[in-house]
Every structure is written in C-alpha cells, then in structure tokens.
Amino acid sequence: NNNKSNLFWTNMMIQSHNQQKNEALNSLKEWKKYRELTLDKSKKRDVEVFNASNYATEAWMNTLFGNYTNAKSLLKKHYNIVNEWDSPAALDNYNGISGMVYVMEGNPSKALEFFNDRISPSNYQYYSYFKGLALKADQQNDKANEIFEFIANYNFASWEVGLTRELAKKALES
C-alpha cells in the first residue's frame, strides 16, 4: 500500500504540473485511499498528519490549477492542524503553499510575507523557486537570481529540483 501510495503521489505531482486536472484529481483520490489503508486511526497524531497532508496537497493542486480561493480555504484547515504542533517545521508547507498562492495571484509582496528564512533553497528547492519569482517581481533581482542559481546548479536528484531546475535556468536567462 505504501508503494502504491507513492506511485499515485508521483503521478499526481507530474499530472498537476502538466495541467492534467482530471488525471491529477484521480491520482489524488488513489493516493489518499492507499495512505488511509495504512493509517492507524487510533493514533491522534497520525490522523492529524494524514489530514494536514491532504489539505496541503489539495491546496497545492488548487494553486496550480488557478483555484486560489479553494487553495486558501484548504490552507486554513491545514493551518488549524499544524499550528498546534511543537516543531520548527510545522508551518513550512503552509508558508510555502501560501506564498505560492500569492505569487500566482500576482501579489509578490504578500507572498514574501510567507516565504520566511526556512523557505530557502537548501531546505525547499520547490517553494524557493516561487520565492525567487516573488523576489524578482518585487524587483529584488539579486536575491531572486541567487535562488535560481542555487536551484539551477543543485547537484542532487529530487522531485523538487526535477520540477524547478529548468524553470530556474529560464528565470536566470530572462
């Protein structure tokens, strides 16, 4: 079930970036189904992680598909769960996706309110790409290009770099 979950998560990521909405939504459904099969519902924290992850992932997908109102609504639900956690990383996905929403809406200064120091290329190459877009739109080209340069030359394979490396190279050229 974990392998099937991972397979559908990968499909969902690729399909969402390729704007294959129906396919991505189907993969999302299957991803949730296989994750739920391994969920120990007697453990409150596991259920919270499951729900928070679902809300964040759906918010991310809605952002890519231009459904910003839905994304913000899902992010509120995500925030209500993760805000209670005692972890420095608890709000990272909330901040990263919220920043993405505002970049995509055309409000880079609001996006930068969410792209804090934890959203850095060494931690999150994916969210950092959007942070770079926000910085560039906010006329902070040197800081933006630092991020794009890091991502464009990042020497490790990950889904984050796989989705943003070429985009970062193009951003440096523009």
Describe what this molecule looks like in 3D.
The radius of gyration is 16 Å and the shape is globular. The relative contact order is 0.08. It has 174 residues and is an all-alpha fold. It has helices spanning 2-17, 21-37, 44-64, 68-82, 92-105, 108-114, 125-137, 141-152, 159-173. The chain is 75% helix and 0% strand. It has nine helices and no strands.
Helix and strand layout, with pairings?
Elements: H1 2-17, H2 21-37, H3 44-64, H4 68-82, H5 92-105, H6 108-114, H7 125-137, H8 141-152, H9 159-173
Helix pairs in contact: 1-2, 2-3, 3-4, 3-5, 4-5, 5-6, 5-7, 6-7, 7-8, 7-9, 8-9
Number of helices: 9
Number of beta strands: 0
* Portion of residues within helices: over 70%
Q: Detail the poorly predicted runs.
A: none
Cα(first) to Cα(last) distance is 44 Å
Which geometry do the CA atoms define?
globular
Strand content: under 5%
Whole-angstrom Rg: 16 Å
Largest sheet: none
Mean pLDDT: 94
Give the SSE order as H and E letters: HHHHHHHHH
Structural class: mainly alpha
Features:
9 helices, 174 residues, globular, single chain, mainly alpha
Summary, kept brief:
With 174 residues, the chain is mainly alpha-helical.
